[in-house]
User: Fold this.
Amino acid sequence: MKLPRIPLPKLTGWKRRTAYGAFLVLSFLFALQRTFPTEAVRERIMLEAAAQGWQVRMGDLSPSGFGGMTASAVTLESRDGLRIPIDEARASLRLWPLLLGRRGIAFDLALFQGRLRGVVEEGRGWRRLVLTGRDVDLSRATPIKKASGIDLAGVVSAQVDVTLYAREPARSTGRLEVTVEKAAVNGGEVPVPGMGGNLSLPRFTLGKVTARASVRDGKVLFDELASRSDDLEMSGEQVYLQLQPNLEYAPIYGRARVKPADGFWQKSGTAGLRGVAEMALASAKGRDGSYGFQLYGTLGHPQARPAGQ
Assistant:
């Protein structure tokens, strides 16, 4: 039996040119996926990270989709010895921004039992970050404990969409929101100004921590920075960051208030802390029993000192 012949459509003019262009793009993407230069990409990642002060180690590296890659067992280590383990990392080029003369990368990271997904785009003089974070477990984030000296617990969620202009910070815009459910401090040590040493922290709960901020006028302005639990009530007032090309060195300003609950001093491990706190923070104690602090330092190294209310 002879099959009927199906006539193919005849393409003329712009339709033919569009078809040829689409064929070339698909052929290029297919060839790129089949001939993915794994080792060359691995070396480039390590070189770029080294230029930023990080050492990268990774297990398997393989192509993923068109113009993408997947890496497992990734470890980032800074010059200071800070190590960040990432169970799996996926990244892919975004074609549409590339056609418009911008560089764009979509990423998906699995770390600390949670995920960070988002997009980074870079144009002439600006950079945009869109990020969604879910179920990141602070109790597994040993790098934070090492950097801060505090053993934290809680589950982090985040929504971020900011565009930063390095040379013109006043043009920067965006919003960010971070929440930590079931936040707690499981111990640690913090320096106390005027004491010449560190203060050992007992275990206490923070409840739900909420931070909401907007980016405008060259600053990151916190509209809300607060937490409340059966142990403590904490809040920030007029807290903001002054944007800098290197965010690690962005100055931080503002005030914070910490009010222990009535039953906090009866908890195990806080009996000895009360006398130290009342002595070192006497000038910062308000009439309602709360303690005031002046925030200063930088985003990478925030600090606080007692301040009268």
About this structure: Residues 14-34 form the longest helix (21 residues).
